[in-house]
Specification:
2 copies of one chain form a homodimer. The first copy, chain A, is of the alpha+beta class and 79 residues long. Chain A has a single domain, classed as Phosphoribosylformylglycinamidine synthase subunit PurS (Mth169, Chain: A), CATH 3.30.1280. A 3-stranded antiparallel sheet of chain A has the order 2-1-3. The first copy, chain A, is elongated, with a radius of gyration of 16 Å. Chains A and B meet through β1, α1, β2 and α2 of A and β1, α1, β2 and α2 of B. Chains A, B: One of its GO terms (biological process) is 'de novo' IMP biosynthetic process. Chains A, B: Belongs to the PurS family. Chains A, B: GO terms for molecular function: ATP binding; phosphoribosylformylglycinamidine synthase activity. Chains A, B: Keywords: ATP-binding, Cytoplasm, Ligase, Nucleotide-binding, Purine biosynthesis. Chains A, B: This is Phosphoribosylformylglycinamidine synthase subunit PurS.
Chain lengths: 79, 79
């Protein structure tokens, strides 16, 4: 079993209300000087080895299902 | 500005309905042999340098606010 991670984040030009809420909550808790953006992390267990074809398949899956590419960007990382 | 990332994932012994739904959807789309767990990724911009104190502060913030440590584990990564 190998692992591939897909990180999905709101694009920089997109407002991120979840991140804004977390940033505000941190400040109220006394954590200052931190600015947060919130995204998603998908840990994908792959049967067998992580070949270039598997990575291409996962990139395809990320575009079709894991990320909304209108408002989100993603990266695929083999771990 | 420096960046620290906090990854929050459901603990292995905890059911992950979101991940299960994504795994099922991928199979229906024709992506086979992939098993997904879904978590959160927080990208934190820090004013100034990432010192050991800043990392300790962010670890504290993760425990108090970003992760529910009853059901989730987290890791702090300086990028």
């Amino acid at each position: 079993m190998s692992r591939v991670v897909v990180n999905v984040m709101p694009k920089p030009e997109i407002l991120d209300p979840q991140g804004k809420a977390v940033t505000g909550a941190l400040q109220r808790l006394g954590f200052h000087g931190l600015s947060v953006r919130q995204g998603k992390r998908f840990e994908i267990e792959v049967d067998g080895e992580v070949t270039d074809e598997v990575l291409a398949e996962i990139r395809d899956a990320a575009e079709k299902l894991l990320a909304n590419t209108v408002i989100e960007s993603f990266e695929v990382v083999a771990e």
